């Protein structure tokens, strides 16, 4: 058997014949060439197996499953066949920029305490590539904090140390939030980081799981967070997790002032616990405060625009340490006016 590669790309394939060739081409364009790609086809019913069998590159290994078992177990099967020092996640329809592997490997080699590193990602919609809305500049401490209130990493950008991976790699019980669960588990054994440069292109389309299975994804994300909140909230961890998932991750409007106050209390306790249990440098602390304030401002703006809260509600329920990020008073007033107009339209329509 040949020497183990530096990187093993793990990919689950299912009915992806139309998009996989472009994904394969993006891998073959990598500047770091010491990699293998382990693709497990999950009993596709289209031409996927023919497309995969036609790949003329010895670095690609195709495994044809005998029974359909879903994306999480299929990905885990790929991991069991991987030989690389690092495991790179990639969905069958997403694209890697040429420097992705080289830059992630360099980071992991230079930072032995880091077990997982993602990258920035752009969106591809109907042939148009745009930058995804996200934190433009980050530090490991900021990413680790954001993991407590959202998912700041794109699966197809993630690279993991194989030595830190558990069995199973991703949990089938956390379907459509299995990547979020993996990041939470990995954060308990080492550092999590993100390269801010956009090194992956995430394809958004109607067939994507994030569009089709929102309800399941939301419920499982809440379960993941509830598990991580037990040390802070005890028996109230489920309620705290649902507040975060509904209103900060799924962006559902806050229904009333009491709920807004409860969300603020959850954020305050989570942040106090994080700062008390992590070594945070001054720059990271500034980022954590600012980015949390930005998200709090977004919660208020959504509620004002939907007409569920008043400007007085937003101001009175604000935790002491949270500003509004870039959501200044002028924008909040505009949001209130929009919410008032929508409420009036509902009354008279």
Give me some keywords for this one:
single chain; 349 residues; alpha/beta; Spore Coat Polysaccharide Biosynthesis Protein SpsA, Chain A; 2 domains; nine-stranded mixed beta sheet; 9 strands; 47% helix; disordered C terminus
Structural description of this entry:
This protein is an alpha/beta fold and 349 residues long. The chain folds into 2 domains: 7-211, Alpha-Beta Complex (Spore Coat Polysaccharide Biosynthesis Protein SpsA, Chain A); 251-348. Helix content is 47%, strand content 16%. It is built from 13 helices and 9 strands. It has helices spanning 20-28, 48-53, 71-81, 100-110, 140-146, 178-187, 209-212, 214-233, 237-249, 257-277, 282-306, 311-316, 329-348; strands at residues 7-13, 35-41, 60-64, 86-89, 95-96, 114-125, 128-131, 159-161, 191-203. Strands 1, 2, 3, 4, 5, 6, 7, 8 and 9 form a 9-stranded mixed sheet that branches. α2 (48-53) links the parallel β2 and β3. α5 packs parallel to α11 (282-306), α9 packs across α10 (257-277) and α11 (282-306) runs parallel beside α13 (329-348). The longest helix has 25 residues, at 282-306. The model is unreliable at 324-348 (pLDDT under 50).
Specify the helix fraction band. Answer: 40-55%
CA-CA gap between termini: 72 Å
CATH topology descriptor of the largest domain: Spore Coat Polysaccharide Biosynthesis Protein SpsA, Chain A
CATH class of the largest domain: Alpha Beta
What is the number of helical segments per DSSP (H or I, 4+ residues)? 13
What Rg do the Cα atoms give?
22 Å
Decide which structural class fits the backbone.
Answer: alpha/beta
């Amino acid at each position: 058997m040949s020497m183990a590669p530096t990187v093993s790309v793990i990919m689950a394939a299912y009915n992806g014949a139309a998009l996989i060739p472009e994904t394969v081409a993006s891998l073959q364009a990598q500047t770091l060439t010491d990699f293998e790609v382990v693709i497990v086809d999950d009993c596709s019913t289209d031409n996927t197996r023919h497309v995969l069998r036609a790949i003329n590159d010895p670095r690609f290994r195709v495994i044809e499953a005998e029974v359909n078992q879903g994306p999480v177990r299929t990905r885990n099967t790929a991991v069991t066949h991987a030989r690389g020092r690092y495991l790179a996640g990639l969905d069958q329809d997403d694209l890697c920029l040429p420097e992705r592997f080289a830059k992630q490997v360099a980071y992991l080699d230079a930072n032995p305490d880091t077990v997982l590193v993602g990258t920035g990602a752009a969106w591809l919609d109907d042939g148009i590539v745009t930058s995804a809305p996200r934190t433009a500049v980050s530090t490991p401490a900021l990413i680790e904090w954001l993991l407590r209130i959202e998912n700041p990493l794109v699966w197809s950008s993630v690279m993991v140390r194989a030595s830190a991976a558990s069995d199973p790699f991703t949990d089938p019980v956390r379907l459509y939030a299995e990547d979020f669960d993996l990041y939470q588990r990995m954060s308990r054994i080492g550092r999590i980081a993100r390269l801010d440069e956009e090194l992956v292109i995430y394809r958004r389309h109607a067939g994507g799981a994030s569009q089709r299975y929102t309800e399941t994804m939301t419920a499982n994300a809440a379960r993941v967070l509830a598990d991580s909140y037990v040390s802070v909230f005890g028996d109230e961890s489920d309620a705290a997790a649902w507040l975060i998932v509904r209103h900060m991750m799924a962006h559902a409007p806050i229904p009333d002032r009491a709920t807004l106050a409860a969300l603020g209390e959850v954020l305050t306790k989570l942040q106090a616990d994080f700062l008390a249990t992590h070594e945070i440098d001054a720059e990271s602390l500034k980022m954590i405060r600012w980015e949390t304030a930005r998200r709090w401002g977004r919660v208020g703006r959504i509620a004002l625009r939907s007409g569920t809260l008043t400007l007085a509600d937003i101001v009175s329920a604000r935790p002491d340490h949270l500003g509004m990020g870039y959501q200044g008073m002028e924008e909040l007033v505009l949001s209130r006016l929009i919410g008032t107009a929508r409420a009036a339209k509902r009354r008279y329509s």
